[in-house]
Amino acid sequence: MLSDRYQMLFKNLMGLYLSDGKPVGSSTLSKLPEVSLSSATVRNVLADLEQMGLLHSPHTSAGRVPTDLGYRFFVDSLLTFQLPTLGHEHAIRQQLSTDLNQDRLLQETAKLLSGMTGMASVVMLPSKAQETLQQVDFLMLSPKRVLMVLVFSDQDVQNRVVELEQSISADQLHALANFLNAECLGLSLRHARAKLMATLARVEQEHQTAELALLQSADALLSQQASERRPLMVAGKTKLIDYEEFADSQKLRQLYHALQDEQALLELFDKTLQAPGLKVFIGSEFGDDVYQSCSLVARPYTMEGEVLGVLGVIGPSRMNYQKVVPQVDLTGKILSSLLKK
Amino acid sequence: MLSDRYQMLFKNLMGLYLSDGKPVGSSTLSKLPEVSLSSATVRNVLADLEQMGLLHSPHTSAGRVPTDLGYRFFVDSLLTFQLPTLGHEHAIRQQLSTDLNQDRLLQETAKLLSGMTGMASVVMLPSKAQETLQQVDFLMLSPKRVLMVLVFSDQDVQNRVVELEQSISADQLHALANFLNAECLGLSLRHARAKLMATLARVEQEHQTAELALLQSADALLSQQASERRPLMVAGKTKLIDYEEFADSQKLRQLYHALQDEQALLELFDKTLQAPGLKVFIGSEFGDDVYQSCSLVARPYTMEGEVLGVLGVIGPSRMNYQKVVPQVDLTGKILSSLLKK
DNA sequence: ATTTAGCACTCGAGGACAGTGACTGCTATT
DNA sequence: AATAGCAGTCACTGTCCTCGAGTGCTAAAT
């Protein structure tokens, strides 16, 4: 455990570094009103903190900079929050106006987070795998083209056009809809598909070729549905160019790439899912060098108490945690309160 | 009109500059095998070309660089194309696999363009305003929640959830669907809405409150539809960081911003719509300083002969026009061939 | 009358160099 | 234990200089 003085100095150093981004030296600290120590004393403390691995000197004649471990300690033990005002809360609710379907709502949330924080935001989408079918309907566009409408239990609606091999009558279509609504409701896409396969085999024996074709198409579509979805949504990537940390365009590019399609993030999100509550990941904790000097502030969101996914913000480790952490937290809370079955 | 020698030298200079990005000097040019002139002679020519406004010296002891006017001349008069191979064409068709709805198809096209060229791509979406309703259907989710499905003449399908003030019966819903399908098909959204308004007024007098509420909701939704759509789709923005032209992150940011929501582009696209065929816009021709040293290669795309929108690629003016122009052209052709009513 | 060779000139890039200032760690003193 | 003092380190900055690429101009050559 660190003595009060050590903590105090470390916290002040953090504050200065977060706001200026330049290495902080002993004399700068000793001049602070709340620090009534000579620079020499401060120096001794800083040397100790460096020994412990919380600080680091870019070079001998520069001040100190926090290490990833230093950030960790700061976030875990020293962070005091700067709560958003009620007006702020109201503004968030406003922007997440409620009459959107789930996907759009999550998209809006991503935009909002990125706008509020000036950094990139990430939203992990609920895994569709668990959603169940609530309603299926067909619409005849032309004798050989049928529109399939799938309503999921999360209120998401998706539709696909099926091109048929041969034409189908309105009655047949109706029958098919009835069949699906009778047999497949309450099943996940995967299960519904399995059931469809079984029926398919049966129908095939009975030589009902017209329905067979439609069923086959429906099957192909359901499978298409399942694979198509990206599990991650990223907004505001371009905001990151403003930070000196990412001035090297080479690095920035790699970071963008990683944000595009990467596993590393998903693993962190999984960790966040496991142990609910807000989590901060810092630099090396990402498990990938691309995220050097990045931090992620993440939090699960829920629907009626059940954890659905994770939302968060990615930016330079040198971010204003005091503001950002409550912002992410509040946004997660509000989103959770807006999500209804 | 420029003499052959002037043209030849200018073209060679362009070639060198496009591939290296460094100012080209007289001696470099005179050493080229196809140039059998001394550097002194070349210098005289270059001085003349600079006089005419086609070239520019960054400083006294540097070589020459084309001006926007120079690019213009090059593109209009000197450009020879490097036709994509048949294999290439096949690859494009492959990626634009056909069973997508229109919006997704355009999205794929944008991705494809950006991937092929390594630059940002822009697709101007067909103005929905002209599309007509082809089919309307309702699905009852619960007594107070109704899903509205709109099928447009361009095969696009959109759906919205209507939250009702009071519950509605299946019969009423059916009647409403019939009414809309009878009255509003073949009308644009705007016209359909106008018709709805008229009916609304009549129904109001007859005090059919249940239908009234639904109609009102439907109206609100139709209007929502109309405004919601972004006219422009941009893909691959982040590819631009790789070009030295955009190394200044300040400028890059502004460019991103402009690409986000800007009018300037739409105006250029309008010009492209007017006079069909491929067009190239260079730097100052954008009419906005943000696009300094950018070029846009754009081309309309059609559906069954009728111009729908414009697609294109944005990158540094110093791009490989010989490759990019045919790529954009071919993609536009293929897209047009894939779009069917 | 072109074309070319030659020459003086310009200017940016890059290296060497010294001075400055912001630090540090250590040691001796309070 | 805290501090003052001091020597040392190192990035940063500005100056000076050289180098080289490239120019424009003029006079000679074709």
Walk me through the structure:
The structure is a homodimer of 341-residue chains. Chain A is α+β, with helices and mostly antiparallel strands. Chain A folds into 3 domains: 4-77, Winged helix-like DNA-binding domain superfamily/Winged helix DNA-binding domain (Arc Repressor Mutant, subunit A), CATH 1.10.10; 86-127 and 231-338, Beta-Lactamase, CATH 3.30.450; 129-228, Enolase-like, domain 1, CATH 3.30.390.60. Helix content of chain A is 50%, strand content 18%. Chain A has 12 helices and 10 strands. Chain A has helices at 4-20, 26-31, 39-52, 68-78, 86-95, 102-117, 170-183, 189-206, 209-228, 249-261, 263-274, 321-338; strands at 55-56, 65-66, 120-124, 133-142, 145-152, 157-163, 232-235, 279-282, 294-303, 306-316. In chain A, the strands form 3 sheets. Chain A has a 5-stranded antiparallel sheet with strand order 7-3-10-9-8, sandwiched between helices. Chain A has a 3-stranded antiparallel sheet with strand order 4-5-6. Chain A has a two-stranded antiparallel sheet with strand order 1-2. In chain A, strand 1 (55-56) and strand 2 form a beta hairpin. In chain A, helix 6 (102-117) packs antiparallel against helix 12 and helix 8 packs antiparallel against helix 9 (209-228). The longest helix of chain A has 20 residues, at 209-228. Chain A binds chain B through residues 99, 101, 134-135, 137, 139, 141, 147, 149, 151, 155, 157, 159, 161, 163, 237-238, 241-242, 247, 249, 252-253, 256, and chain B through 99, 101, 134-135, 137, 139, 141, 147, 149, 151, 155, 157, 159, 161, 163, 237-238, 241-242, 247, 249, 252-253, 256. The first copy, chain A, binds a DNA duplex (30 and 30 nucleotides) through helix 2 and helix 3.
